[in-house]
Design a protein that fits this description.
Number of strands of chain B: 0
CATH superfamily of the largest domain in chain B: MetI-like
Low-confidence stretches of chain C: none
Strand order of the largest sheet of chain C: 6-7-8-3-9-10
Mean pLDDT of chain B: 86
Mean pLDDT of chain C: 91
Largest interface: A-B, 68 and 75 residues
Oligomer: heterotrimer
Largest sheet of chain C: 6 strands, mixed
Number of strands of chain C: 10
Largest sheet of chain B: none
Order of helices and strands of chain B: HHHHHHHHHH
Radius of gyration of chain B: 23 Å
Strand content of chain C: 15-25%
Structural class of chain C: alpha/beta
Helix content of chain C: 25-40%
Shape of chain C: globular
Shape of chain B: elongated
CATH architecture of the largest domain in chain B: Orthogonal Bundle
Radius of gyration of chain C: 18 Å
Chains: A mainly alpha, B mainly alpha, C alpha/beta
Low-confidence stretches of chain B: none
Order of helices and strands of chain C: EEEHEEEHHHEHEHEEH
């Protein structure tokens, strides 16, 4: 057990992180770890059946989950629900992003806008967005609008705040330099302020996407007929645990894809930050 | 205390705007006035709930669940975070698994927890524990791994054994990161407890809010939301102050 | 009397067996007790690597290092180290830092207090005992680091470009300080630098190293008085001689 933990000579050489592994070995280790995880899971669910620990319905093995997902995919069910969730996220996030960036740029740049919008934002910020969901339902009923509106509300805040920060934190030296080169008004905005604030705006968008996927489920638990969240909650009625887990994993994949997309956009637009 | 005053002014401003919009609406009858409660109505609803003891009951229920779930997760995250940082093979094995599970929104597992643990306190506490564990664990492990090698070398050349290194160098050096991780974790716990209390709960601020919807009482929704916001603000400020106290020595990043 | 430090055929290569980059060729060097030896050379010549091996932070690929006749297997309190990045523990005060070594060795509190007092006086920082490193200037931080290393009463002190991060004026002030401290403490010191001037000012012997893989090119004994005048003709002569030898090596690196 003593050499299981890093020894002093090892710590001296490379610190807590340890020496870097060559690429091949690192990849093999990652795959091995995931494989071991799946194996352990299978083992546990098998043990539950054999040893009669509790009702095996509560811990289906990974293959049951995968099988369920594939089954739903083949029968077309999965796509219906996936599309429903995706549509809500896309519309909600899109609106939230447009409002967040738009108002953020305005508030960051023009003081009068800032004095009006900021107090409202500051007051609403500490309130967890989830707490507002029932309000949306009361106002607009249990329909698509309330869900999309809720996503819009939730994603608005991080995007707005990072946009404002992005605009405000521009080095005043840059602005002075641009102005002494003749840039004014709209030109100054589009050619200097916007590009300089872009990295922060993109970070905000990435946070917004993550948040959108984070909160969509809960709104699909309450009064929905379609969607991955609906699938998860619906599974409760008949203890369809493979369905619940499967839908959760699919949702995770969607979130991952959304995040990767924004990161790709970041890398494209921020090439000047990381020329390598 | 100009900082607090600076924050109070915009809040009062927002309050004023709310009052104007709500009263204006009630007077002009643009939208059903029930849907847009005025600050007075909200205040009245709040006082009623407070007087009947309901508000305190829900408040303490939510707080209790958060505290227990967070507490368990924090202990686990600290222990495992340290262990993983001290043991390279373990870290290399756990890291990919965490990356695999992380993208799945924790709320997606809420129904699972309700199935596994029923509708009682245990499911909420377990769910909060699950939700807050991963981000805290990742952040704590990262904070520990960031400890500068040169500090380890300095201590070793002063005679530190491995136990000394962990106790007297790694832990103090990682402390700022650990405190930040705990603060973020607690914030996350407050964030999701509401959602967890929407379903299968008969007490708690989230339930109070949901009840407001069921009985078409938006004023109650606002009361619940505001109390939550207040709780979050208070705790966050408290933790920030503690953080600043603990790390007077922190070098400028 | 046997040499304090014996570096015997020490070599170091980094990387996998068949793709190794040699950093150090075979080094043989003895450092006598109370001697101040400077390792001097162009960037990448391996002087810091050699120091790290003597300190025990790295293991040599070939050869051994003996300190007080015993082989080095890892870091230990008999070899105190002063780093270029100061490496002060930011969560401890100045006293706390200086006290660290004695604390690990379970010295009684009264003894620790007097040790800390003695060494803070030596480096002239008694007035700052309760400050945190973040409140100190670079020069002050390095003085604390020196006090910390001395307070542990090591057999030898290893210094890796300790004044490299300081501005020119502070650097010279600290060189004066170190020279003064050495006259009081009489420690055995192995000092890495790339400044010829610094080496001539401080060292009893200057070891000039070749570019990678580093080997000893030439050793210059410095026969100057204990208190040195940077502008004396003898001083400048040493500088010139050593510069000529170092220039050859620098030219090779640039090719």
């Amino acid at each position: 057990m003593a050499s299981f933990l890093s020894t002093v000579p090892e710590l001296m050489d490379a610190g807590l992180r340890g020496a870097r592994l060559p690429r091949g070995r690192s990849l093999a280790l990652r795959l091995g770890a995931i494989g071991a995880f799946l194996a352990l899971w299978s083992l546990l669910s098998g043990a539950v059946v054999v040893l009669k620990l509790f009702n095996p319905i509560f811990l289906p093995g990974p293959w049951l989950v995968l099988g369920n997902v594939l089954d739903m995919a083949v029968r077309g069910q999965l796509w219906v629900h996936l599309a429903a969730t995706l549509e809500r996220v896309a519309l909600g996030f899109g609106t939230g992003a447009a409002l967040g960036v738009g108002l953020g740029l305005a508030a960051g740049h023009l003081n009068p806008v800032r004095y009006v919008v900021e107090p409202l934002v500051e007051m609403l910020r500490p309130i967890p967005p989830l707490a507002v969901l029932p309000m949306f339902i009361v106002w607009v009923g249990i329909g698509e609008t309330s869900k999309i509106g809720f996503i819009t509300y939730a994603t608005f805040f991080p995007i707005f705040l990072t946009t404002v920060t992005g605009v405000r934190q521009i080095d005043p030296l840059l602005l002075r330099a641009a102005q002494s080169l003749g840039a004014r008004g709209v030109g100054l905005f589009t050619r200097v302020i916007l590009p300089a604030a872009l990295p922060d705006i993109l970070t905000g968008l990435r946070l917004g996407v993550a948040l959108a996927f984070f909160v969509i489920v809960i709104s699909e638990f309450i009064g929905a007929e379609h969607g991955l969240g609906y699938l998860i909650n619906d599974g409760r009625n008949f203890f369809l645990v493979p369905q619940m887990l499967g839908a959760a994993v699919v949702l995770g994949l969607l979130g991952y894809a959304g995040n990767a997309l924004v990161r790709l956009l970041e890398r494209r637009l921020n090439r000047w930050q990381h020329p390598a | 205390m100009s900082g607090a005053a600076a924050r109070a002014v915009p809040m009062l401003g927002a309050l004023a705007v709310w009052a104007v919009v709500a009263h204006g609406n009630a007077w002009l009858d643009i939208v059903n006035p029930v849907l847009l409660p005025t600050p007075l109505e909200v205040g009245r609803a709040g006082l009623e709930l407070a007087a009947s003891g309901e508000l305190i009951r829900h408040f303490l229920t939510s707080l209790g669940r958060v505290a227990q779930g967070f507490g368990l997760a924090a202990v686990a995250a600290l222990g495992l975070g340290l262990l993983v940082a001290m043991c390279v093979p373990l870290r290399l094995m756990i890291e990919p698994v965490i990356e695999f599970v992380r993208p799945i929104p924790p709320l997606a597992f809420l129904p699972m927890f309700l199935v596994w643990f029923g509708l009682g306190e245990a499911s909420k506490i377990a769910f909060i524990g699950y939700t807050t564990f991963f981000p805290m664990f990742v952040a704590i492990a990262a904070g520990v791994l960031r400890v500068d090698v040169v500090l380890l070398r300095a201590a070793a050349s002063l005679g530190a054994s491995r136990a000394d290194l962990v106790r007297r160098v790694v832990l103090p050096a990682a402390l700022p990161g650990i405190v930040v991780a705990l603060r973020v974790g607690f914030g996350l716990a407050l964030f999701v407890i509401v959602g967890a209390e929407f379903m299968g709960a008969d007490a708690g601020l989230g339930h109070l809010i949901m009840e407001g919807r069921t009985f078409f009482n938006p004023a109650q929704i606002v009361v619940g939301a505001l109390v939550l916001g207040l709780l979050g603000s208070l705790i966050n400020t408290l933790l920030l102050v503690t953080e600043r106290r603990l790390i007077r020595w922190r070098p400028e990043a | 009397m046997p040499p304090k430090i014996q570096i015997q055929r020490v070599g170091k290569s980094f990387g996998a067996a068949n793709r190794a980059t040699p950093a150090l060729g075979e080094i043989d060097l003895d450092v006598a007790e109370r001697e101040f030896v400077c390792l001097l050379g162009p960037s990448g010549c391996g002087k810091s690597t050699l120091l790290n091996i003597v300190a025990g932070f790295l293991g040599p690929t070939t050869g051994t290092v003996l300190v007080d006749g015993r082989p080095v297997h890892g870091p230990a309190p008999d070899r105190g180290v002063v780093f270029q990045e100061y490496a002060l523990f930011p969560w401890l005060t100045v006293s706390g830092n200086v006290e660290f070594g004695p604390l690990l060795q379970s010295r009684p509190a009264a003894e620790r207090r007097s040790t800390v007092e003695r060494y803070l006086n030596l480096v002239g920082l008694s007035a700052h005992a309760d400050k945190f490193p973040v409140q100190l200037s670079g020069g002050m931080k390095q003085r604390v680091a020196i006090a910390r290393a001395l307070a542990n009463n090591p057999s030898v002190i290893l210094m890796d470009e300790p004044f490299g991060a300081l501005d020119a004026q502070t650097r010279e002030v600290l060189q004066d300080e170190l020279s003064r401290i050495q006259r009081v403490e009489h420690k055995t010191i192995l000092f890495v630098t790339h400044s010829i001037r610094e080496a001539v000012y401080l060292a009893d012997r200057v070891v000039v190293m070749t570019s990678a893989p580093g080997q000893i090119k030439q050793i210059f004994p410095v026969k100057l008085p204990e208190v040195r005048d940077r502008f004396a003709p003898e001083f400048t002569q040493y500088e010139a001689d050593i510069t000529r030898v170092v220039r050859e090596e620098v030219a090779k690196v640039r090719e």
